[in-house]
Design a protein that fits this description.
12% strand; Oxidized Rhodanese, domain 1; five-stranded parallel beta sheet; 400 residues
Length: 400
Amino acid sequence: MGKKLLVPIIAMLLALAASSVSAAEYGNPGLLVDTAFVKANKDKPGWVLLDARDEKAYAKGHIPGAIHLGKRADKALRDPTATMLPVSKLEETLGKAGISDSSNIILYYDPATITRAGVAFHVLETLGCNSDALKCKVYWYNGGIVSWKADGGDLTKEAKTLPETTFKASPVWNRYATTDEVYYKATGNKPSNPLDEMTKRYGDSIVTYDPDTQLVDLRTKNEYDGKDIRALRGGHVPNVDLQVSHKELYDGKTGKIKSMDELEKLFGSLDKNKRLINYCQTGTRSSFGYFVFRLMGFKSPSNWDESWRVWASNVNYPVASEQWFDFNTVKKGKTKAWDSGLKDIAALKKQLAAVKKTAEEAKATANAAKAEGKGVCGPTALLALAMLPLGVYRLYRRRK
């Protein structure tokens, strides 16, 4: 065979080999959309472009036609303890924002709020979007506002509002993991009483007790090992199958999700056909993880809402690599939080001392009155009783 014939044959074989090595596609690629998709659909009737960032970022500049919930998405959809709001309250919040149970919703964010967008995605899917239960669909704009600007999109400061509508949820509870389920995974035993607030609210029927459940920790390695303690105790839930920091799932500069090939390197040891729970500190980073697992094609992923903040602060729950919070370390750090706490404690001590002094004076007056046969509940005693709740309330307001 001549060299002239051999060269093109080799070139053809190399081309065939290269074409056979293509990037793996996500398991649910339809969840992830790009700028062209957003431009083509955001202004159509029945479509909602939802900005997951905070109100200041929205006011400073947002994608034209985008609405806002008045607060950052995670704050609007969860209570102050970072627990998902009751279904009835979520229905009200979404309906007032103009989002119905048949809307097509596109979520966007910036890299700093990517996990907050994850909360919105998880809540909407838990309520029934992207299921046979409801018509509503929720999509994830890959890269969010960074992609929009990179592709030449303009921003506006003009707020967009939609007419109020009705959102009637049909919850898909297997997308929501409870502390009861994690307790079963960690100990092999079902709890005798409901542990999770949502279990208490909606009943044990929302809990999935599956012995094959996989548990993933999306916190940092230091949190997992108990070196970074953010609750009463540090460490991790016993029987965790895998620990991967959520920061490994996306590009921190662009906010774009890592490729399927890159994600497979992280999570390839897991079985996509088995139930999966992921958790973090407050259920925020793991909400984003929930989206990534859905994108990858896991059949039954879920997010543990209560997460480590609840588990580690209850001494009845077992902890692996257990480390206890060291208050002396915090004191030495002279943090603002510590200084503020010391001031609050000092103020409370003064208030309690004043109440105690007044109470002692009232007691002396009452004893004197009693000796004279008079009433024992004079104005000084009433003042002492009134000051105690007032002092506690003032402390509460200071901390808020």
